[in-house]
User: What shape does this take?
Amino acid sequence: MKNKTYYEILGVASHVGSGQIQAAYRFARSLYSGEATPTYGLLTADERDQMLALVEEAYAALSNPNVRRDYDIHLAAQGVRSHAQESAPPHPEPVPPERTRAARVPPAPDLSAAEPPSEPARVPEQVNGSVLKALRESRHLTIDQIAALSKVGSRFLKALEDDRHDALPGRVFARGFLIEYARALRVSDTELVERYLKHWTGK
Amino acid sequence: MRETDLTSEESRRFEVWAFGGGKGGTGKSALAASVGFQLSRLGKRVVLVDADFGGANLHTCLGVAAPARSLLDLVRAGGTVADEYAHATPYPNLRLIGGRVDEGAGGLPVGWAARLSTALRALPVDLVVLDLGAGVGPETVEVMNLADLKVMVSVPEPSSIENVVSLLRSLCLQRLVQRLPSNEVRRRLQAVQSGEAAMRVRSVGDMLREIEAVDPSLLGAARALIEEMAITLVTNQVRDDADRKFGAQTAAVVRRHFGLPMSYAGFVHHDDAVWRTLRRGKMFMVDASRSRAAEDIRRLARNLLQRADQSPVF
Assistant: This one.
């Protein structure tokens, strides 16, 4: 069964602009925040709370251009797979929120096949935040320079270097950030991502 | 736009519409009568049909007497010719197949629904508008499933939306049971229509999972059967801003959590002019034609004809 994407949670198409994302977010909030009569008859208080949390999470991701771009990359990879399997139903399936959360962060796709790094370089066998930092410093680059090169927010890059996985919006996003980080460092993104995520402790 | 300005597509199409919603007292009959009246004003040849077995009073909403021969007479006689049961009303282009308030739906002959469908579709008109009773009894659900457009009438109250969802669930289950070519699937779905299993199978997604467990090859057909249902929601007796948002919110919740593509056709204000004219046995679209409710009905009839979805677009 298909699971809900952030776009489906907000009830928008994936190509809409930020204004529509915001309008859809306000509408979705009004549905689940306890002000709307219809949800009383259909959802329990727990279900409403869980949906509200999902709506907030979806908006936090889609209202941030960098995070949204990485999420879109992930969805595109997912889309290719789901077409091949022809498993998507014609309409969004009603998925209980507790199932949605787990399913929304699936095993991350292998994006490296689509675009190999231009100049792969050696990546240490063990990669953690300190190794990332060491690689960056060996190339005389600051966090802000990596942010400018990768278009990933410096606070996320800092979180990766500090191994503060809970400060990142999720494993799938971390994978996207790491790919960009690897490309900025001109090292193999496949190896860097795989080795870093071996020690992943976040959600 | 003048009232006679219909597009060629709107003028050409023959359709059966049904007004239901599960809950009593939401104004289904008054809405069906007034929308039917408005469509006749737009130049459509309309037959209103009172399918509220045991509670028929559509004639009262039109300000006419109960007809000598009713819809149940037609069905029990096994008839497939409905034209002679369609009585004239004081309004051009608008006729009524009525019911009597003292007759129940018991003793319907086998195959009555199919014959009724044939009879209604043979009527020399443009639109048949069915007014259904409250509840989710099998006869009510069966008649609603005959309709090309299913109009759910709700008032902005939690109990009303519960009834709408209950009716939607019954509509989907009955449609799947009747149309899917598998006895095993039929038995499984009939088992979840009531009892403990009913709690387990609430949404369309749940129903599809039940079907998949028995025969995955029927999943595509089942999805198509659900997807092709044209269902829209009307909010009646709207009083304030929160009520005005109710319809779009309800349609969104039904789409997102029940898995059914229900649209939202619009709302009608609560209006004392309606009950004042009904109390005098008059048609409010005529006697209170400038009332806010009458204006709402004119807009609603147009939206229904055009299948215009009033849900917010993001």
